[in-house]
Amino acid sequence: MAKQGINPKQIKLYNDTAVLYLLSAEGTISRKAIASKLGLTAAAVTKITKRLIDSGKIIETGDFIQNSDRAGRREVLLSLNGSNKLTLGITAELDSVTYSLCDVCGKLINKKTYDFFDNTDLIVERAAQFLNSCTYKPEQLIGVGVCVVGSVEKNVFGVWENEELIAKLENKFKLPVAAENNVKAYALAELIYGNVPDNSSVLFFKWGMGIGSAVAVSGEVVSDKDSTLSEIGHYIVDPRGKKCRCGRYGCLETVASAKAMNEEAGGMPFEEMVKSKDEDIINLIDQKINVVALALTNTATILNAKRIVLFGSIFESKSIEEKLIRQCGRYIADFNSSAIAKGSLADKSSYIGAAAVSAQRFFFGNY
Questions:
Q1: What separation in angstroms does the CA of 61 have from each of 46, 75, 267, 363?
Q2: Domain map of the chain by residue range?
Q3: Which helix (H) or strand (E) covers residue 32, if one does?
Q4: pTM of whole model > 0.85?
Q5: Pick from 98-102, 195-199, 245-249, 303-307: least confident
Q6: CATH for 196-343?
Q7: Which of 304, 344, 337 is nearest to 191 (CA)?
């Protein structure tokens, strides 16, 4: 149902976006079901769906369902026309850069990952090389999504200067570009493509080479401008700790990230640490799980989060995921396996956030 206190143009955009998100979640749906689920009149849905069909964003599938209210009357099913709309994604992590080509429904067409590099001209050049290796029609591309570590309001890291990179990409591909923090982008992807409910507060927690978090309230990801409460990776947990890339000392990221554990274990790769039978290594990992559980439950309590969604390379280890959930449950009984779980899109985190950011901005629309 349309929000109160907004003008007719905003109402139209809000309703269009709500219908597109519903189709993304349902796959196919009738006009009558849209009206029922969104609390709209049949006449309003007819206008909205005609507008979206005319714009090429949705199509009638050619399939029908029987209308139970009227004998012999069948309803036409609708679906997104998403497979014909593609997005280029560029996802930067502390140790890698991934290029991806997806449709606006989040389906991966192709991707390629490099070790991290910080030359913006090379970023653009490799993006062009990647697209040249893909099979697609240029008119199918609707935009570029860029996901980065850190805030997109500032320089990201190295020479990843947000505005400079956006300008270079826009000039090269003649396409609009949307940039977002990588954790917030993943949270958006879970809201669009995953199974996260949109009626509560959800904390998203990333644990890998770095540590990050984001919060979504009532189906919307909280932006940097709204709050920095959810920046769990930069909570100070050891006042005597090392200097963090954010400029502070003793941040959670400097204490418990995979990079920090690797350094503390004398350079042992984290993948080997997880498999190690050495008691010291096992104790080290358990200590870090405890520190993370404390930070996570405290953050969730402050934010009144009802669910915690986990993702990141560390959660490739099922045992660490289970230990963390158990430890959170020891601190706060409500944070058990029904409230904390690995994200449904966790295995797609190298590209799904970039796809979601671009699809939301240039296909679904912001309201």
A1: 16, 11, 55, 19
A2: 8-80, 85-185+350-364, 196-343
A3: helix 31-38
A4: yes
A5: 195-199
A6: 3.30.420.40
A7: 344
